[in-house]
Amino acid sequence: MPRAAASPADSIGQWSLTQRSLHGLLSAYVRFYQGARWEPSTIPAEGAAILACNHVSVLDPLLLVASNTRVVSFLVAQEYYDNPWMRRLLEQTYSIPVRRDRRDVRALLQARRILEEGRVLGIFPEGGIQRSEIQKGVAWLVRESGAPVVPAHVGSVNQASSDLQTWLRRQHPLLRYGVPLHFHRDADAAEVLGATMSAIATLA
């Protein structure tokens, strides 16, 4: 009889040795090399949550991961998953590859499953670094899951001409968290998006 697949880890007490080691290395990099500062995370200690943050550089997800003791699974552009080394790292957070050239329904369904399992989903509503068009995926996920939205804002950092240059440049980023937002599952998409982006902006 085949062995049942292990449930994905969530809180730090459930992490594998690999996950603990990577989290430690990542935390050391952003805190000591980048000189990053962050406020205490407002993500609930348990249960589903949508972590919504502005997106200014490739450092943003690293800061969000380092500042939390729960696994944050992200919707990640497919091109990062196409890199074998990046894929190995992303798989440790159960992140989801998403195609940005079209509406990726498969990725959204996987994201909904993460929330159904009572875990944390990280999402950048702008859909990409320093983009102005707000994606509607957050509103759909709120309607489908009823999960609270935790706003976060990254400041004092900029994207260089390449990801490597951004990782090497010391910028002293600042990460701030806001109060979780609770929406009715029938809330209008415009209401959800407007309130979420406003909450992120107030943290700047």
UniProtKB/TrEMBL annotation:
UniProt KW tRNA-binding keyword: no
Name used for this protein in its record: 1-acyl-sn-glycerol-3-phosphate acyltransferase
Keywords: Acyltransferase, Transferase
Alphabetical GO biological process terms: phosphatidic acid biosynthetic process
GO molecular function annotations of the record: 1-acylglycerol-3-phosphate O-acyltransferase activity
Limits of the Phospholipid/glycerol acyltransferase domain: 49-157
Alphabetical list of CDD domains matching this protein: LPLAT_AGPAT-like
Keyword Cell membrane: no
InterPro entries listed in its UniProt record: Plipid/glycerol_acylTrfase
Pathway: Lipid metabolism
A Pfam family that the UniProt record links to this protein: Acyltransferase
Lineage of the organism: Bacteria, Pseudomonadati, Pseudomonadota, Acidithiobacillia, Acidithiobacillales
PANTHER family (alphabetical): 1-ACYL-SN-GLYCEROL-3-PHOSPHATE ACYLTRANSFERASE
